[in-house]
Design brief:
Oligomer: single chain
Helix content: under 10%
Order of helices and strands: HHEEEEEEEEEHEEEEEEEE
Distance between the termini: 23 Å
Number of helices: 3
Number of strands: 17
Length: about 210
């Protein structure tokens, strides 16, 4: 996104909890690591294992909306905004990684200026939730995310090992969760592993810190 590319790195760092070198300046806070299960479907062929589309479906049980608190709870405990639940590791597209899900939004708190910056980078600061895919350095995928039937745009993402990138996160436009979160499915579809192609121009580092 053009607006995202022109944002000063310091502004991204401040918004997403990075230090001046793109590293985390906060202790990562997983609320409940290794939650639920991840099923990878549409297994690749044996001849081209990195080029066939694959979809990882992460089923989360125990989520529900607490109408009194107006927040999502997991196993009857409120997951604070900015905290994530982490999946087990799984193999997809010929690489191994994991998913993170923020059930009460990626941002713990957002100022008006930070909201403009997030929206300019394609992140919906007021989204009720967020999902992110975390892969080894050097991975380059064409992918799209889905949450409870809602689907992101198709994007290309390159993990360069120096902090994460906007494309590995998705926040839906909806500001409120669906009425039922029973056995919520969160996932990512890897349409192609692009690692063998010419590398993309270096992508701005933006995500890591705040959950």
């Amino acid at each position: 996104d053009s607006q995202a590319r022109f944002q000063p790195q310091a502004a991204w760092n401040e918004l997403l909890g990075l230090d001046s070198d793109g590293g985390s300046n906060a202790t990562p806070e997983a609320f409940t690591p290794l939650a639920g299960r991840v099923d990878v479907v549409e297994a690749p062929s044996t001849t081209r294992p990195c080029q066939e589309p694959q979809r990882a479906r992460w089923t989360l049980s125990g989520l529900k909306v607490d109408r009194k608190r107006l927040q999502v709870v997991y196993q009857n405990i409120v997951v604070p905004p900015g905290r994530y639940i982490q999946s087990t590791r799984f193999s997809i597209g010929g690489e191994e990684g994991f998913l993170r899900f923020w059930p009460n939004g990626y941002f713990a708190s957002v100022t008006r200026r930070e909201r403009r910056l997030a929206d300019g980078g394609g992140l919906c600061a007021d989204a009720w939730c967020a999902v992110g895919l975390f892969m080894p350095p050097g991975t380059r995928f064409r992918l799209r995310f889905d949450i409870a039937g809602m689907r992101s745009d198709t994007r290309e993402c390159y993990w360069d090992g120096n902090g994460s990138v906007v494309q590995q996160l998705w926040m839906p436009d909806e500001k409120e969760p669906p009425a039922s979160l029973d056995s919520l499915q969160v996932g990512v579809e890897v349409l192609r592993n692009l690692r063998q192609l010419a590398p993309l121009r270096r992508t701005r580092r933006v995500v890591r810190g705040r959950g």
